[in-house]
Amino acid sequence: MVCYAQYMIDLDAISHNILRVLEDNGRISNIDLAARVGLSPSACLRRVQELERTGIIKGYRAVLDREKLGAGITAFVMVGLAAHLSKDARAFERAMVAAPQVRECHNITGSVEYLLRVEVADLPAYKDFHANILGVLPQVSSITSHISLGSPKDQRA
């Protein structure tokens, strides 16, 4: 069962199977998808359209090789805010949305407020991001960086 804030959606085994196949290959043709999940193409298309309509399938995207595109360093950055005011959180989030180096920004629980996934070309580029983007934000009180040495499992699309 998948829970959404607005409503509960009960998915059967076939819908779960459709989602697993699409997560692995979002470009699969409807005919091939139907064959893999044991449905007729028309029934499969109706199910996929319903999964899209309800927002379970939010979209389709290409998986890019960031290293080949010049992003050789991935850093996971924990950021603590100086104050726990909503205006500070909103200002910080706007700054992260505007920063192209920030690929993900998560508001988290624990000793800090945010976890970022940052992608840059190299260490000097990360140093520039750290000093000139994060380091100048008045909302930021702490920055802890973790540089990724490799990703043996990464299922992000």
- CATH architecture assignment of the largest domain: 2-Layer Sandwich
Terminal CA distance reads: 22 Å
Average pLDDT metric: 92
What is CATH's topology name of the largest domain? Alpha-Beta Plaits
What's the β-strand tally? 6
Low-confidence stretches: 1-6
Number of domains: 2
Overall shape: it is elongated
Helix content percent band:
25-40%
- Main sheet characteristics: 4 strands, antiparallel
User: Order of helices and strands, N to C?
Assistant: EEHHHEHEEHE
Q: Structural class, from secondary structure content?
A: alpha+beta
Question: What's this entry about, in short?
Answer:
By secondary structure, the protein is an alpha+beta fold. The chain is built from 5 helices and 6 strands, in the order ββαααβαββαβ.
Describe the protein's topology.
Blueprint: E1 2-3, E2 8-9, H1 13-24, H2 30-37, H3 41-53, E3 73-81, H4 86-98, E4 102-107, E5 114-120, H5 123-134, E6 140-147
Antiparallel strand pairs: 1-2, 3-5, 3-6, 4-5
